[in-house]
Write a structure and sequence with these properties.
disordered N terminus; globular; 190 residues; 4-stranded antiparallel β-sheet
């Protein structure tokens, strides 16, 4: 499935949305572009995203030194009209926000978790600290309405993040596991 007739494939759409819920960022002038930027330790994950989005990209992923000792591995798509609606939905106020409704497919949730997920002893977190509490409650509502997954906001220092309940963690894993890269399965509780 490629980018045919000027539109994203379903897989590409799910990866873009999952990335925007997670670590992905966009910029837009006439058309939007998507930046994928992760630690060099997640090179296999970036390479997987690149392979899925390759027809939207001109230059393959590269290492990039960041602040301090951080070494990133990243790529940027071309500015494309196909990406601009996602920019308008997620950046409607100039800052990344959660739209009123997002289709949380299994692949979208897997990408979101691979980007921003972590585990506790028996539950999982989605590190949503960058979003307002209202937006995080919106995400909790979407998880409940679309997948019957329950969770709550968990204080992380002075911010909040989503904690999927212990009771829903097993179901969450069953939903996203077929899409998880083996290198990132360590994010699940044992």
């Amino acid at each position: 499935m490629g980018n045919t007739v000027g539109s994203l494939s379903g897989t590409q759409r799910d990866i873009v949305i999952g990335s925007l819920l997670g670590d992905g960022s966009m910029r837009c002038r006439a058309n939007a572009l998507l930046e994928i930027n992760h630690s060099i330790s997640q090179r296999a994950y970036v390479d997987w995203k690149y392979a899925e989005l390759a027809d939207l990209v001109s230059t393959p992923p590269r290492r990039r030194s960041g602040n301090g000792n951080r070494v990133a591995y990243r790529f940027v798509t071309r500015s494309l009209p196909e990406l601009t609606p996602y920019f308008r939905e997620f950046y409607y106020s100039g800052k990344k926000r959660i739209p009123m409704s997002v289709d949380l497919t299994p692949l979208t949730m897997a990408v979101w978790f691979m980007d921003d997920g972590s585990r506790s002893r028996r539950a999982v977190y989605l590190n949503t600290q960058q979003f307002s509490r209202e937006e995080q409650h919106r995400l909790l509502r979407m998880l409940r309405e679309q997948w019957d997954l329950t969770g709550s906001l968990n204080r992380d220092k002075s911010y909040f993040r989503i904690r999927i309940s212990v009771e829903s963690t097993k179901r969450f894993r069953e939903i996203i596991d077929p899409h998880m890269l083996s290198e990132l399965r360590y994010k699940f509780p044992q």
